[in-house]
Input
Amino acid sequence: MKNISFFLILSAIFLFSCEDSLQKEREQVFKEVMAIHDEMMMMGKIRGAQSKLKKMMESDSTNVEKYQTAYDQLQIADDAMMDWMRQFKNPAQNTDAKEAIEYLKDQKVKVQKMKEVMVENMDKARQVIDF
Output
């Protein structure tokens, strides 16, 4: 009887420690996803630069195409962020930890791709306008 009780106690400790480990991993992956999101959350800067570009297009007809290209690149960056944010759903607390981790790891890949698109397009636009 003592052996069975000891085994049950050890099993419970093991299960709780595994669950705690999964919860910590879930929180860590979520933090990583949000860190990339927060780093790239530049909608105000992007839209401010687009506003300046519109004014530049109106006042300098010789460079309209260059300004329009920069505007479009900023729009691609903005759209990348908005598209990612629309599809992201933080898993509910009662979601199985392994499922939540899998989803968040997939989201980490997606948010990294979003960052790449944003950085590439903002860098191109910065050749025309500083923001």
